[in-house]
């Protein structure tokens, strides 16, 4: 059992840390509060090749191992979780295209997605269907050599910048079970009838946009059916969410790490009753608990990533890592805020942003309560084992 990084992973992590310290941390608080889009940060991520994380080398990507993948999201989220979201949705979509696309689709899109010339996202959720994806209402009717798409999507990251945008649709609304009639179409977002209705105002997760979309008779060429076969869409989407969950777990670790760093710094610098508050036992207990939970979440996330690298089906492992790490991020952000006292509630300190960003980690890529039931069912059916 080896808990250490190889030389390549260590060098990659250092490159990421240098980038975060130089280009993200100095501007994150001000840009986040002003609502400014992090254009310069996105451009640097492109220069570093990060948009090609999930793209094989033969198509111009980094072909990164999954441990390096989670290192990326941990380190960037330590600086600004919203920026990690820009890269996260793009990477999950690229993973899906690389795994399930036809050779023509891969060659058409992946090389330019790898450089960041093109960016993408994932349009699954609808106003009436989030966790229950089989309940989506967006339809795609075949008309000659095009599908005609009608429907609405919501909470779509990168909606204003994605092209193509994979959209989950029902190509056969009458199919039973419903997933037999679901497909993914690679939609050109410049098409007539594709409308970004609005940006959703959010508590946190700022820096990237989350949008409502309307598709009104959008015509999509038949060759843009992902994989070229109807009825595979839900499976394609769910398989990509395995990487999405380790992505969320890693982002959660990044939030928790920054919460720990801010709490530790403040406990050393802030004085009360003639001494640093870190000398008080109550503060020490909170600091210790943050550190313990943070390291446990980190190891669980790396474990899930290593399982994927080993070729093991890891829906249960990624679910466990996502649940534990996101709950850890929530608790660590709150405890860090408590250590800061009144200043923790001030927008002039980093911790209030961490406190606003953390709740999304317990919701995105499957709510924690739903994932707990998924994990339990896998255990009961003998599909997963612990110990």
UniProtKB/TrEMBL annotation:
Keywords: FAD, Flavoprotein, Oxidoreductase
Domain Acyl-CoA oxidase/dehydrogenase middle: 122-218
Location of the Acyl-CoA dehydrogenase/oxidase N-terminal domain: 6-117
Domain Acyl-CoA dehydrogenase/oxidase C-terminal: 231-380
Coiled-coil region(s): none
Known cofactor(s): FAD
Organism domain of life: Bacteria
GO molecular function terms noted in the UniProt entry: acyl-CoA dehydrogenase activity; flavin adenine dinucleotide binding
Family designation: Belongs to the acyl-CoA dehydrogenase family.
PANTHER family with a match to the protein in the record: ACYL-COA DEHYDROGENASE, ISOVALERYL-COA DEHYDROGENASE, MITOCHONDRIAL-RELATED
Protein name, UniProt field: Acyl-CoA dehydrogenase
Organism: Amycolatopsis antarctica
């Amino acid at each position: 059992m080896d808990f250490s990084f190889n030389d390549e992973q260590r060098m990659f992590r250092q490159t990421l840390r240098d980038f975060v310290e130089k280009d993200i941390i100095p501007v994150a608080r001000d840009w986040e509060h002003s609502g400014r889009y992090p254009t310069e940060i996105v451009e640097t991520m492109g220069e570093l090749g990060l948009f090609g994380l999930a793209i094989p080398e033969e198509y111009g990507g980094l072909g990164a191992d999954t441990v390096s993948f989670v290192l990326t999201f941990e380190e960037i989220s330590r600086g600004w979780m919203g920026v990690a979201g820009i890269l996260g949705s793009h990477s999950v979509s690229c993973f899906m295209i690389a795994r399930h696309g036809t050779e023509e689709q891969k060659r058409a899109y992946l090389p330019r997605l790898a450089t960041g010339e093109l960016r993408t996202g994932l349009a699954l959720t609808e106003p009436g269907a989030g966790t229950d994806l089989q309940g989506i209402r967006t339809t795609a009717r075949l008309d000659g050599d095009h599908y005609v798409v009608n429907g609405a999507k919501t909470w779509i990251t990168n909606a204003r910048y994605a092209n193509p945008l994979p959209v989950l649709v029902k190509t056969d609304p009458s199919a039973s079970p419903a997933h037999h009639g679901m497909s993914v179409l690679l939609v050109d977002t410049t098409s007539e009838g594709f409308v970004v209705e609005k940006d959703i105002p959010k508590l946190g997760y700022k820096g990237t946009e989350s949008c409502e979309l309307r598709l009104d008779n959008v015509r999509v060429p038949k060759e843009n059916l992902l994989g070229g076969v109807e009825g595979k869409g839900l499976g394609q989407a769910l398989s990509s969410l395995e990487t999405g969950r380790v992505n969320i777990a890693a982002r959660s670790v990044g939030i928790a790490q920054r919460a720990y760093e801010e709490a530790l710094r403040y406990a050393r610098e802030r004085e009360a009753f003639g001494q640093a508050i870190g000398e008080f036992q109550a503060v020490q207990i909170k600091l210790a608990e943050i550190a313990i939970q943070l390291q446990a979440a980190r190891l669980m996330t790396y474990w899930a990533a290593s399982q994927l690298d080993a070729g093991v089906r890891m829906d249960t492992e990624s679910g466990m890592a996502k649940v534990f790490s996101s709950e850890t991020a929530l608790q660590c952000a709150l405890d860090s805020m408590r250590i800061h006292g009144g200043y923790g509630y001030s927008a002039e300190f980093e911790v209030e942003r961490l406190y606003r960003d953390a709740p999304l980690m317990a919701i995105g890529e499957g709510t924690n309560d739903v994932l707990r039931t998924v994990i339990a069912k896998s255990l009961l059916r003998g599909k997963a084992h612990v110990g």
